[in-house]
Specification:
heterodimer; A: 6-stranded antiparallel sheet; 21 strands; 22% helix; B: 297 residues; 13 helices; elongated; oxidoreductase (chain A); flavin adenine dinucleotide binding (chain A)
Chain lengths: 591, 297
């Protein structure tokens, strides 16, 4: 009998594992995908090798890449970018750690209070969340991002928009700023040279501006795993969880098993109350099934897999909200082409942003060629100049929205990958019951019936649709201000990268799966601690910081409720994840 | 005497490309190979099946050539037919056709339970949509032989490579857009289209609801019916998006054994990405915006 079993080692699960391992609990973490313990032996810098969703090392599938990826049903033109493996989607993220907007929390009384997703607010206040934000920010650590040429250009555009620069952690108004990111900023030779002989740790520390965030961070070369620049959980929380005995008094290292696909959460009635008792997982390699019991089970498999596991476990769904209310920031994509150098594929993927509560936000994104081409090709508006698929909006961009494809795409990229600046349009989108995960009618895979992810992008709420149009226009304004000679709007089909709220926490038991403590309403001792637990889309900010802050709070609730412990966030200061004691212990463990 | 195969059936085989690939001008089978007398001497296994397999693979490849040059045109004959020939390397040089076929046939974990009925529907469908097609002078006995071979192939335990039904879908749409595409250069109707016509074919796939599923004339069990319609929409988008990703990736020059490149990828040549190859870092750090290195509430 374990104290706690955590399902999933992505962005959220390792937070709970690390916090409770530090308190001396016996924690088992089960990850469905690969361990990726030796990135220099397993990873490259190449887009197809890394990011091919069918066969890349960053895909949704088992470690063995000769085996097929796990198929998921998407009944629309869309792309749900799930990753298995230790680190989950933080393996390919850009480490952006903005805080959720205050307007999405209970008790917010700003002048624009009625303009947010008012029916799906956090069930507690922003003020209550701040210590958890601060805890994660100190632990990662989260810092103000260094600037490269693409950021400089983004700021040049933002400076023309009559908005102030944000110099606080909390976003109070429409404003722009460098990202606050979970990237170790460049020190020594990092960022100052392209000579690989000069870029070994510790001569180079922090971000070397390699531009390979999306292919996984394993730089500077020679650094201990917990001192790689990007603070994906495989570089931060997971190393901490596995070494808790060396940096936490009374800490006990968590156990991590990869290639362990959880297929069932077990429950039984205790004193008339349905209670989680353990899990069954399947070994991807041998196919063997294992069962283990625990005092508390924490689901952290992500917004798509948590509902699937819930349904496949036969757990109750009394208000029918399991899997519903999936938010994705209803992204769009704008490409500016320039006469001058933009530095597009260099440095952290995105180090500049513009926040625009209560509409959403913008951020710059640098990409290598295949991902640039893919991003220009994913559209709900047909192909520019050919067909519009019933849409093809016009506005302050050039021509109709739609795919830049074929000859036009080739011409655009042949103008130089470093003559482009791309902007991600982030929408403050509403929680909607129709956007959801159900079980698919297609055949099951080896782990049971598969999930189906439905997004009705053309029927979203008026507010969501309006916000997206507003932010797309702002993106065009920014690119023009930066000097773009041509601006393209792609009108992305749903590209599900920021995922939130499919197992949402909420004040009302009528439209939420979790109570305000992160415990499921229907099954006691069953908690959810990843993005799916978020009550809403946060107003648009990238979700990882808020998700990890909430998971930290949930870990405290678990410790208080079921292990008789005291909360710690208000009393203690966190150990920083780069701590050399962790590095030394990782070395001893061969990690 | 065998009974004549109905005209609609003949038209359908032409539209998905099989008829032309097997027997059209420049087709891969000679008509004598489909001589009914030969078949009668091998009652256990129609010899045409073995003959047909490479024909179908060639048809799929030709169709995918038509797709990948749509994603990334180059100096090749397919781009020329499409009307977008360009001097710089394109999909044929970036190995995009191999990429898409390998992905579809080996890596798309598309359930057989769905692939088989779609494939079967594609190959056996009638789809009498009233479109008049030119050049269907094939003799009924030969056509019947072709049909028997197709049926035998579908009834065998062999998994149908997914690239085949996808290719047939594209060809069916191609002939919807331009009926004349049943004949011409290349092996497949889709590859014979102009760029604008290919775009129109994708427009038809993308706006699909019930129409295309009805056109396929296939009976899926009820819970699957809605899935098939959604899936076709997904497939329509994915072919463009994934084909483009492959064409602009390092696929053709990547050596999986050494995990190194054997040459410079086409897209790197085109876009100037990483002139000296992969790096450990760049000298692109300018400083901090307005000199600010930290913020506080």
């Amino acid at each position: 009998m374990r104290d706690v079993i955590v399902i999933g080692a992505g962005g959220g699960g390792p937070v709970v594992a690390k916090e409770l391992a530090a308190k001396g609990l016996d924690v088992l973490v089960l990850e469905a995908g690969p361990r990726h313990a030796k990135p220099r032996d397993e990873w490259t810098t190449f887009e197809n090798d890394a990011n091919n969703p069918l066969s890349g090392y960053f895909r949704l599938g088992p470690t063995d890449r000769s085996k097929p990826a796990w198929y998921r049903e998407w009944p629309q033109n869309s792309f749900v970018w799930q990753l298995s493996g230790v680190g989950g989607t933080t393996q390919h993220f850009y480490g952006n750690y903005p805080r959720a907007y205050p307007g999405v929390f209970k008790g917010y009384d700003g002048a624009d209070r009625n303009e947010y997703d008012v029916n799906h607010r956090f069930p507690f206040t922003y003020k209550e969340m701040v210590p958890y934000f601060e805890w994660v920010e100190a632990l990662m650590p989260v810092q103000t991002a260094a600037m490269g040429h693409k950021e400089q250009l983004f700021f040049k555009g933002a400076e023309t928009m009559g908005l102030p620069v944000q110099t606080t952690k909390t976003t109070l108004r429409a404003s722009y700023r460098p990202q606050e990111n979970a990237i170790l900023q460049p020190q020594g030779t990092a960022g100052k040279t392209s000579d690989k002989n000069l870029l070994n740790f510790p001569q180079a520390k922090g971000c070397t501006f390699c531009g390979y965030c999306f292919q996984g961070c394993m730089r500077p070369k020679g650094a201990p795993r917990n001192q790689f620049a990007k603070r994906s959980t495989d570089n931060s929380y997971v190393p901490m969880a596995l070494t808790a005995e060396v940096w936490a008094t009374g800490g006990r290292p968590a156990e991590l098993i990869a290639d362990a696909y959880v297929t069932q959460v077990h429950s039984e009635k205790r004193n008339g109350v349905l209670t989680a008792t353990g899990v069954t997982w399947r070994d991807n390699v041998t196919g063997d099934e294992h069962r283990e019991d625990a005092k508390v089970v924490v689901m952290a498999g992500g917004c798509t897999e948590n509902p699937r596991l819930w349904f496949n476990s036969g757990l109750p769904n009394p208000n029918d909200w399991v899997g519903r209310g999936y938010t994705d920031h209803f992204f769009d994509w704008m490409i500016g082409s320039f006469d001058d150098y933009t530095g597009n594929p260099k440095g952290v993927g995105s180090s500049a942003r513009l926040d625009y509560p209560p509409y959403g936000g913008l951020e710059n994104v640098g990409l290598p060629p295949a991902l640039s081409a893919f991003s220009a090709s994913l559209s709900d508006s047909g192909i520019r100049g050919q067909y519009k698929n019933g849409r093809g909006a016009t506005g302050p961009w050039d021509g109709p929205a739609g795919r830049v494809a074929g000859p036009e795409l080739k011409e655009l990229l042949s103008g130089g990958i470093d003559k482009l600046l791309t902007v991600l349009v982030i929408t403050d989108d509403d929680v909607e019951a129709q956007n959801r995960v159900t079980l698919s009618a297609l055949p099951a895979d080896e782990n049971g019936p598969i999930p189906k992810v439905t997004f009705k992008q053309r029927q979203r709420t008026k507010r969501t649709l309006k916000n997206r149009e507003f932010m797309a226009r702002k993106a065009a304004e920014l690119l023009r201000g930066a000097g773009a000679k041509k601006v393209y709007r792609i009108d992305w089909a749903p590209l599900i990268l920021h995922v939130q709220s499919s197992m949402r926490m909420g004040e009302s038991e009528n439209n939420s799966v979790l109570d305000a403590r992160g415990e499921s309403r229907a099954v006691k001792r069953l908690f959810i601690a990843d993005n799916s637990a978020l009550p809403n889309g946060l107003g648009g900010p990238n979700p990882t910081l808020t998700s990890q802050a909430l998971a930290t709070r949930t870990a405290e609730k678990i410790f208080q409720t079921y292990f008789g412990g005291d909360p710690w966030v208000l009393k203690e200061a966190p150990v920083v994840s780069t701590d050399p004691r962790i590095s030394v212990r990782l070395g001893q463990l061969g990690l | 005497m065998p009974t004549a195969v109905p005209l609609a059936r003949r038209a359908f085989l032409a539209r998905i490309g099989i008829l032309g690939a097997a027997l059209g001008g420049g087709g891969l089978l000679t008509r004598s190979l489909l001589n009914p007398a030969d078949a009668a001497t091998n009652p256990l296994l129609p010899p045409t099946v073995d003959l047909l397999r490479p024909v179908l693979a060639a048809l799929a490849r030709d169709t995918m050539n038509g797709l990948t040059v749509f994603c990334q045109p180059g100096p090749d004959a397919y781009s020329r037919t499409q009307g977008t020939v360009s001097k710089t390397p394109g999909a044929m040089e970036s190995g995009a056709t191999n990429f898409i076929i390998e992905s579809l046939d080996n890596f798309v974990p598309f359930p057989d339970a769905l692939a088989q009925p779609i494939g079967a529907a594609m190959v056996t469908g009638l789809a009498d949509t009233g479109i008049v097609l030119p050049g269907l002078e094939l003799l009924p006995p030969q056509l019947r032989q072709l049909d028997k071979a197709l049926a035998a192939l579908l009834q065998s335990d062999e998994a149908l490579p997914l690239s085949l039904p996808i290719a047939m879908l594209l060809n069916l749409m191609a002939t919807q857009v331009n009926p004349l595409a049943v004949n011409g250069p290349h092996l497949s109707p889709f590859a014979r289209l102009t760029y604008a016509e290919k775009a129109s074919a994708f427009e038809l796939i993308e706006k699909t609801d019930a129409d295309l599923v009805a056109l396929l004339d296939v009976q899926f069990p009820e819970p699957l019916k809605e899935s098939v319609s959604g899936l076709l929409k997904f497939v329509g988008g994915a072919l463009i998006e994934f084909g483009t990703f492959g064409a602009y990736s390092e696929y053709a020059v990547f050596d999986p054994k050494t995990r190194k490149l054997k040459g410079r990828p086409v897209s790197w040549q085109l876009s100037g990405y990483q002139p000296d190859g992969p790096v450990e870092g760049w000298d692109d750090f300018i400083g901090y915006y307005q000199g600010r290195t930290e913020v506080h509430d």
